[in-house]
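> @MW can you paste both from yesterday?
MW: sure, first one:
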Amino acid sequence: MRAGMWLEALAQRYRVALLVVPVFATASPRFEAFARAHAESVTVMAPVPASYRRWPRLFRRRDPDLIRVLGAQARRCVDAVRSLDGSADIEVIHSFRLYTAPIALSLAREFPAARLHLDLDDIESVTRSRLAALHDVPGAGDADIEDARRFAAAEHDWIPRFDRVYVCSELDAERLRGLVPAAPEVRVIPNAVRIPSSPPVPRTTHPYTFFFVGTLGYEPNLDAVAWFTRRVLPRVHARAGRPVLVRIVGRLPAADLRPFTGRHGVRLVGEAADLAAEYGDADAVAVPLRAGGGTRIKVLEAFAHRRPVVSTSLGVEGIEAVPGLDLLVADDGDAFADACLRLISEPQLAADLVDRAAALVASRYSQDVVNRLLIEAT
């Protein structure tokens, strides 16, 4: 979603040649249509081999065969750029997420006059360190610790080579400057969501429904669902005094979720064609994240769709929301369950949270507001 936000803004000022690096899956027809509506050429790389899905392998191994494959496909993008008008000039090379940085730096050798911009959806070394901290079994987090170290090395190596870096919050800007003292100019562009013209009205004839949405192949989301269904939901069921349902929506439903989605009151929906309809079936949104980075678009979406939110501190990190005024925040199982129960039993509290959160997202995180920042930044 953030990459799409950038693409729309860049297309307003530039002729865009888009190079797509599929990490989790091949591009969907819906994505292809969106991309081609905003870019004059679209080059989609072949999916990265499964053995390289953990991107730090690229950083440490420099595998000649993989680099040759990536280089050949980047060359297709260069050729596409030159075919737009016969010119070899590129003004800006905009790279999204750290793993595309070496491709951008390679393209910069072809276009030395281009300004190099890097957008960091999160700070990968921090995200990997947080994942490592989730493991209770000794040694289980060693791979994440090693990945965090290698991501940190890549950040120190690549980020200073760019002319500008974008992040999604002031918190990440401060964090990046501390981690990479040689970082270039750092600018904050918040994540954004579109405000629905008519937010869905909650249904009143079904169990009280908590909604969780996120890519289910992403480890922090898997951990969030597991923790919520194991540590929080039984406490809510025991004390709610009414039926409670949890709906889990996201792309790439994972086998890791099956033990939890078979439990009472849990439904795994999978990828939803109409997310607005899913919000219409929800009474509240749960964001029980214990790892991850950047800022969570799922929180902003819930605000925009006028649904009360209960989140961990990390889930709302970097968003200018005030606990107790815009949403409820809790970090252990008992406190999270208590917050969920408050939303169930105190409808006026939920309504007050919704009103304040909707005003916040409209003034700070709406697509219209952030688009102006994007156009100025480009």
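MW: second:
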Amino acid sequence: MPPPYSRHVFVCTNRRPDGSPRGCCASKGGEEVRLALKRAVDAAGITGVRVNGAGCLDACERGVAVVAYPEGAWYGGVTAGDVEALAESLRPGAAPVERLRMAPIPKRNG
């Protein structure tokens, strides 16, 4: 049996304590983005895509953080208003949403 999905999208829903200097995707609407993206993918009839909630993607200061695989497109500052464009980018052969793409994240110590 072939794998049921050809693409996976992870939406950060990580919660840090209030006042964390890095913030958290949960307080920036991560769960709302996840639900809206799932609905948008379904409504558009896009198949072979699984939208999952994720724990920490180590990018909450740029959140809501989203990553799509297999292409490895990382997005930051995603809002519910961006999900239609993200859903369309998940169609076979579609381009990533450049205005939401993250610059590479510098490695942290610890």
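> thanks! Helices lie at 30-43, 83-89.
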